[in-house]
């Protein structure tokens, strides 16, 4: 039942190679991303010094890029823990090589998403006033505010996701500990908490992961529902919608899977893990992406149809500006990116290849960013009293910060792959033992057998 | 590893000492030097002194938002004749002669960023002793800030006395 | 958020007779001076960052040449069921027991959520620190805060005047009555289009006018229960 | 109590069989160390995990804490809301949900670490890095010299490499 020695060494070698060797591509990525990140930090420093007026926001468009990015990144975070948990709970065997890539996305996307509510404040240094802590003023946060719900939901999700990433990492940390030398060994020894791999430990680990998966699914759903309620709780036209919760959750998983496919494609190429991240994984995730593309279209259609048919004047104004007015180019780009391009690519089996799903994912990410922007800005720029209509144009500072956070994400991810095995080694090996999938390593002739479908 | 631990401990101790010193400095009563070394004890508590009441000098405390510091002519009302040999009174006389007011340094005040609008009048009318908020000024040789006027301190008293703790009572 | 407990405190309200409003904007000027409202400058104003606690909305009706201009002074409506209040995460905006929608500047962290949820768009944000050209800062009203950067601000119904009026009534050991409190805009209105008083007192002018058949409230269908009552123009 | 014997097996089935044989011989304080969970092994004989129960308990505790955090503090601090109710059931329910789930997660983690004997001094005793070379390590704790001899005899008949004799 154990894999033979050669296979085992090959797997260790392949999956730990990123930790041992550092390629030039990795270095270039890190340096470029660090430069962009520094630019964003500089932009934020300038904003701290001058005031938030360096952004393009105004009255009545008080939120724009900041909250768009916030919702976008929180959406991306649904790639990982949620998908990984669903696949674990349903016992989908093909999940094994992708769970860790996914869970890491969640943690980093939440770290970045969580930055925006802080830096968008008029007084960013006072963000801690949102936390309930005893203070001599006798003041307490207002738990009725959706922003407080956000605070609790994101903290719960972040903590949960971090633990959920960490638990299955422990045996791999022990593996790295045994293979490493010097100060690295000390660090990995500390991180692996003295893992020996006794059956009692395995038992506890599997049980804990199972329990966490069950708990984390409702938390993940609640997080993006609450993010949607930031808007839906407000009585502004086209925000005050009952279906925003599920609409946002579907959108979040949609963009999340797209991010996961992209990350996997990059990892596959950079670290030469073609034998581990196989076309079947892209195919299966592509099918999920297709489902969510259809779901997204259905939700969007339902949302806009009811607005159009209801013909409520204030809502109609916002509706028209998106369909045929100032926001129409962005709106139709969104529809093309979220549905028109990815749907056929993903629906046609021949096109659902690795490069096909990557192209679909790229357009989905662009489309979903636009979707969030189009939910926020058109509503705000056309308030009920027409005298106050406004417009919005981002400044270089907002754009720099937005680009910088993308770079930050890539940077965090790159560093992560350097420090920890990006594919769960023990889970992968266990998968080979538990259900002997036709696998290249088992093929004595070396010819790749078609993967199970 | 051993050396690293030592450095870590040393830095930790240094930080602790620095924090303690800063905290001690911050909790010291604030006692700025005044243009004239006015002695509250001498005017209020000294057995053979004039035994003034607070509102003899701070006469608008019960009438307006500000308690007010007296005009120099109030001082000169007595010091035209009393203790003219004291060097501090001579300083006072010199101010009077130049028809100039000494630039007293405020001891009790709110940070302008706190947006607090405090009024003495309702507090005096509610029979709150001056010493409740300003410490034992009658016994002070040199005026200093003995009570910290933090928001929690204000609120606590408002709660005890069942006075409104509406934000608009103080902030606007 | 639905139930409100009765209180014996005065309930401040305003009545604006649109028949009398000429759109002269004297109220706007009076408000700016009384409440230390910052002037942001032309460049910022072009970006839509003016700060006004009261504004005159101007609407045109009819087709040329038969055009009518309508004016409507709009300030914070001090809604009884204010949408801005529950969304503030730090209680920087809340309802006082005198029916005022309060904004506490030094508690505000600047999430701007309140402004997004205000259907009347009456909330202004301090995007920058404001510069007051000398000697204008000498004209600051000492009874009102000068708002710092990063906080929301809006009409307070001249709470400093309300507090002063209430203190005066207390000194005289009586309830507040009409004339004790006059906000700057009401005081300044040259056509006497604005009235202010305690709507809980049935004998007050605002209470009587609020029962007029011309009385309406802005965006009343939202259920915000505004405390500003507009008397529509008679035909 | 003597030093335990570490037997290193290349084949997991042999390791499991040996462990069962040792158990039959009265040596019950065994540990099987492996690089991946051995599902068919003596795992069935492990005591039942209480992580699930602890997660529930943590959740209940969290819900209580959240109720205090919301309702308790709101009432205790008597924040002025101008006659509006201070306690809002719908909104507070959301906070209670999140805190419940968070403490369930943390309780499950704490229990897991405790159950697995992780993060405690001496957690790494009786270990051999052969585990991460795809070997199975059988740790046999012997009560006295007699049982020790029994164990050594049993192990000598296998293909295992023995350490700590």
How many distinct beta strands of chain A? 0
Strand segment tally of chain B: 0
Q: Which segments of chain A are poorly predicted (pLDDT under 50) over 5 or more consecutive residues?
A: 438-453
> Major beta sheet of chain A, specifics?
none
Report the biggest beta sheet of chain B as strand number plus sense, adding barrel if it closes.
none
- From N to C, what is the helix and strand string of chain B? HHHHHHHHH
Number of helices of chain B: 9
> Termini distance of chain A?
23 Å
Low-pLDDT segments, ≥5 res of chain B: none
Q: What is the residue-mean pLDDT of chain A, rounded to a whole number? A: 90
Described by the principal axes of the CA atoms, the overall outline of chain A is globular
Work out the helicity level of chain B. 40-55%
- Percent range for β-strand residues of chain B: under 5%
Description:
The complex is a heterotetramer of chains A (453), B (172), C (235) and D (165). With 172 residues, chain B is an all-alpha fold. Chain B is 47% helix and 0% strand. Chain B is extended, with a radius of gyration of 22 Å. Chain B starts with a helix and ends with a helix. The longest helix of chain C is centred in the C-terminal third of the chain and has 13 residues. With 235 residues, chain C is an alpha+beta fold. Chain C contains 7 helices and 10 strands. Chain D has 2 domains: 79 residues, Alpha-Beta Plaits; 65 residues, no CATH class. The longest helix of chain D has 27 residues. The chains are: A mainly alpha (453), B mainly alpha (172), C alpha+beta (235), D alpha+beta (165). Chains in contact: A-B, A-C, A-D, B-C, B-D, C-D.
Question: Quick summary of this structure?
Answer:
The complex is a heterotetramer of chains A (453), B (172), C (235) and D (165). Chain A is built from 18 helices and no strands.
In terms of topology, how is this protein built?
The complex is a heterotetramer of chains A (about 450), B (about 170), C (about 240) and D (about 160).
Chain B: H1 2-27, H2 40-44, H3 54-57, H4 72-79, H5 87-98, H6 120-125, H7 130-134, H8 151-160, H9 167-170
Helix pairs in contact in B: 4-5
Chain C: E1 12-17, H1 26-34, H2 42-46, E2 54-61, E3 68-75, H3 84-87, E4 93-95, E5 101-103, H4 113-116, E6 124-125, E7 152-153, H5 159-171, H6 184-188, E8 194-198, H7 205-209, E9 215-216, E10 228-231
Parallel strand pairs in C: 1-10
Antiparallel strand pairs in C: 1-8, 2-3, 4-5, 6-7, 9-10
Chain D: E1 5-9, H1 12-24, E2 30-33, H2 51-77, H3 89-115, E3 136-140, H4 145-156, E4 161-163
Antiparallel strand pairs in D: 1-3, 1-4, 2-3
Helix pairs in contact in D: 2-3
């Amino acid at each position: 039942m154990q894999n033979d020695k050669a296979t085992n060494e090959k797997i260790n070698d392949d999956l730990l190679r990123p930790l041992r060797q550092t390629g030039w591509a990795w270095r270039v990525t890190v340096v470029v991303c660090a430069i962009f990140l520094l630019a964003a930090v500089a932009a934020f420093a300038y904003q701290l010094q001058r005031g938030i007026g360096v952004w393009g926001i105004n009255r009545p468009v008080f939120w724009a890029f900041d909250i768009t990015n916030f919702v976008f990144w929180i959406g991306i975070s649904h790639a990982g823990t949620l998908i990984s948990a669903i696949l674990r709970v349903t016992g989908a065997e093909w999940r094994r090589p992708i769970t860790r890539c996914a869970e890491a996305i969640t943690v980093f996307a939440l770290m970045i998403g969580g930055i925006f509510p802080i830096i968008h404040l008029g007084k960013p240094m006072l963000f801690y006033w949102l936390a309930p802590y005893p203070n001599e003023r006798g003041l307490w946060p207002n738990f009725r505010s959706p922003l407080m719900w956000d605070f609790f939901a994101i903290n719960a999700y972040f903590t949960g996701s971090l633990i959920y990433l960490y638990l299955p990492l422990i045996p791999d940390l022990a593996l790295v500990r045994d293979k490493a030398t010097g100060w690295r060994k000390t660090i990995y020894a500390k991180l692996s908490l003295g893992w020996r791999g006794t059956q009692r430990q395995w038992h506890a680990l599997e049980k804990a992961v199972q329990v966490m998966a069950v708990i984390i699914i409702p938390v993940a759903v609640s997080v993006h529902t609450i993010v949607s309620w930031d808007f839906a709780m407000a009585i502004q036209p086209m925000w005050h919608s009952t279906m925003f919760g599920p609409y946002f959750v579907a959108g979040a998983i949609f963009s999340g899977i797209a991010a996961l496919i992209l990350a996997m494609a990059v990892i596959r190429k950079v670290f030469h893990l073609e034998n581990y991240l196989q076309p079947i994984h892209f195919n299966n995730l592509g099918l999920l992406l297709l489902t969510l593309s259809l779901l997204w279209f259905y939700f969007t259609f339902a949302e806009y149809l009811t607005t159009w048919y209801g013909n409520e004047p204030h809502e109609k104004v916002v509706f028209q500006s998106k369909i045929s007015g100032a926001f129409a180019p962005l709106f139709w780009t969104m529809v093309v990116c979220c549905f028109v391009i990815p749907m056929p690519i993903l629906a046609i089996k021949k096109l659902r290849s690795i490069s096909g799903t990557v192209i679909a994912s790229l357009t989905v990410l662009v489309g979903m960013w636009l979707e969030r922007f189009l939910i926020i800005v058109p509503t705000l720029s056309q308030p009920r009293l027409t005298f106050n209509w406004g417009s919005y144009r981002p400044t270089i500072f907002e754009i720099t910060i937005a680009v910088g956070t993308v770079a930050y994400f890539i940077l965090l991810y790159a560093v992560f792959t350097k420090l920890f095995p990006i594919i769960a080694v023990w889970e992968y090996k266990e998968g080979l033992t538990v259900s002997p999938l036709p696998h290249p390593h088992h093929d004595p002739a070396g010819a790749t057998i078609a993967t199970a479908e | 590893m051993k050396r690293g631990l030592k450095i870590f401990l040393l830095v930790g101790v240094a930080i602790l000492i620095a924090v303690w010193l800063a905290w001690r400095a911050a909790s010291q009563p604030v006692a700025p030097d005044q243009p004239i070394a006015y002695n509250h004890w001498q005017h209020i508590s000294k057995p053979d002194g004039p035994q003034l009441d607070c509102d003899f000098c701070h006469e608008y405390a019960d009438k307006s938002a500000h308690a007010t510091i007296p005009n120099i002519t109030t001082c000169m009302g007595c010091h035209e004749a009393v203790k003219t040999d004291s060097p501090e009174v001579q300083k006072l006389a010199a101010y009077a002669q130049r028809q100039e007011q000494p630039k007293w340094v405020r001891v009790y005040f709110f940070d302008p960023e706190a947006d607090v609008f405090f009024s003495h009048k309702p507090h005096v009318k509610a029979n709150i002793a001056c010493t409740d908020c300003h410490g034992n000024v009658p016994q002070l040789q040199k005026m200093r800030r003995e009570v910290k006027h933090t928001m929690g301190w204000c609120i606590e008293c408002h709660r005890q006395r069942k006075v409104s703790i509406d934000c608009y009572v103080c902030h606007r | 958020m639905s139930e409100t407990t009765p209180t014996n405190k005065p309930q401040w309200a305003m009545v604006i007779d649109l028949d009398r409003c000429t759109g002269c904007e004297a109220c706007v000027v009076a408000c700016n001076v009384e409440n230390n409202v910052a002037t942001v400058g032309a460049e910022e104003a072009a970006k839509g960052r003016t700060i006004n606690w009261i504004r005159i909305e101007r609407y045109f009706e009819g087709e040329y040449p038969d055009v009518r201009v309508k004016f409507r002074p709009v300030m914070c409506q001090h809604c009884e069921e204010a949408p801005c209040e529950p969304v503030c995460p730090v209680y920087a905006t809340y309802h006082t027991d005198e029916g005022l929608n309060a904004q506490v500047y030094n508690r505000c962290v600047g999430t701007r959520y309140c402004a997004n949820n205000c259907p009347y768009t009456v909330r202004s944000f301090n995007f920058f620190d404001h510069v007051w050209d000398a000697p204008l800062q000498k004209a600051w009203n000492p009874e009102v805060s000068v708002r710092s950067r990063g906080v929301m601000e809006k009409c307070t119904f001249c709470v400093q005047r309300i507090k002063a009026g209430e203190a005066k009534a207390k000194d005289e050991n009586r309830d507040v009555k009409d004339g004790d409190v006059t906000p700057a805009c009401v005081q300044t209105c040259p056509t006497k289009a604005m009235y202010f008083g305690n709507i809980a007192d049935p004998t007050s002018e605002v209470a009587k006018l609020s029962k007029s058949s011309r009385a309406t409230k802005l965006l009343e269908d939202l259920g915000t229960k505004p405390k500003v009552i507009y008397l529509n123009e008679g035909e | 109590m003597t030093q335990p014997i570490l037997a290193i097996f290349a084949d997991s089935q042999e390791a499991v069989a040996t462990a069962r044989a040792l158990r039959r011989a009265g040596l019950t304080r065994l540990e099987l160390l492996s690089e991946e969970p051995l599902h068919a092994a003596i795992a069935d004989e492990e005591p039942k995990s209480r992580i699930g129960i602890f997660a529930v308990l943590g959740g209940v505790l969290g819900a209580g804490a959240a109720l205090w955090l919301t309702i308790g503090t709101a009432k205790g601090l008597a924040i002025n809301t101008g006659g509006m109710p201070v306690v809002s059931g719908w909104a507070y329910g959301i906070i209670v949900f999140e805190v419940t789930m968070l403490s369930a997660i943390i309780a499950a983690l704490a229990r897991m670490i405790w159950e697995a004997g992780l993060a405690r001094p001496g957690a790494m005793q009786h270990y051999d890095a052969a585990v991460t070379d795809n070997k199975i390590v059988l740790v046999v704790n012997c009560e006295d010299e007699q049982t020790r001899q029994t164990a050594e005899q049993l192990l000598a008949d296998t293909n295992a490499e023995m350490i700590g004799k």
